[in-house]
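Morning. Coffee machine broken again, so started the prediction first thing and wrote up yesterday's gels while waiting. Chain of 335 residues, entered below exactly as on the submission form.
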Amino acid sequence: PSTRRLPFALAGAALVALVYALCLSAFSKPVALLAAFLCSIEGFLLAFSRIVQYQSFLLLFGLAAFYSAYRANSSTTPRPYYCLGAVFLSLSLLCHYDAAIAAVGTLALLRLKHIKHWLLPALIAIALTAAFYLPFYLTGNFSNTASYLGQRIDLSKFPVNNLPRYFNVFSFYNSIYFTVLVWLPILAWCFVEIYRILRSGFQNAAHKGKLRPPSHTEETSSLHSHEGGLPRAQSSRGERQRAGGCLSLWLLCGLISMGFLIARPNTHFYIIHPPLLILAALSITIVLSCREKKYLAPVICLLILFSLPYPWFAYLKTWPEFRPAFPKSLLAIYP
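Came back before lunch.
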């Protein structure tokens, strides 16, 4: 019945609102609007919001824990935020073990200068998590779960490559246009970051060789060019970079574990989608704010335009003659 699915739909809607709140605090309003929009039409998130399963709540609690840790860093009284984050982190772990991947990014946000505030949140997290898992382990049911997880992980097949299957499934839940819209900016961003690291190493080597190092003005100009003149968020640039780095860590841990370590991840790649969509929105916004990249704006708008009808076909157009032939019953614009 629809009433049983309502809490999961509400969790999916709350996740979109939380993405907006996080991006508004950490980055800027354009990034927040675009990230929330991408989350609202992403196929995995829509699919899990329509069924009675744990994924919507896990993502909601996992991102809430991340947001709580982020707010703690910019607060003069971080302990309440850490305690709240501990509750959300425990709730996400109670949903499924996948939450451990999201927890990596959240824990990376913690600041050592706040270590004196960690004890109470740690006790809360341990107590809430142990309240379920300790009896679960002592009753002997854990052995069955461990056997099942062993079959799913199956390290005897290491290394595996699940990325082709993932992108095949991703382009089924989403249109090919949405796939390009999300993943191409991420790949471009990775290339730019690698280039910046290599360039920085070359400049350091040149400086040691007594060649003229770049001036402070040049470095500042390059930085502003890379940021694309984004509207300033409520946080400092260091906090924005830290949030982006921890989201990248969440994405990378999930991509490596599901892509190369776990033999049968199936749809559990969903765990990387919140950071994926946020970083994609950040990358797109940076591109659109660069004057020399303005020619890409029409391309991005077309990708968004063609992405919009797909969720309607996939999740709302459910009359009998459409479902058996899906995806062949889609419009010709969706290859």
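Residues 210-233 have pLDDT under 50 and may be disordered. Going to sketch it on the whiteboard this afternoon.
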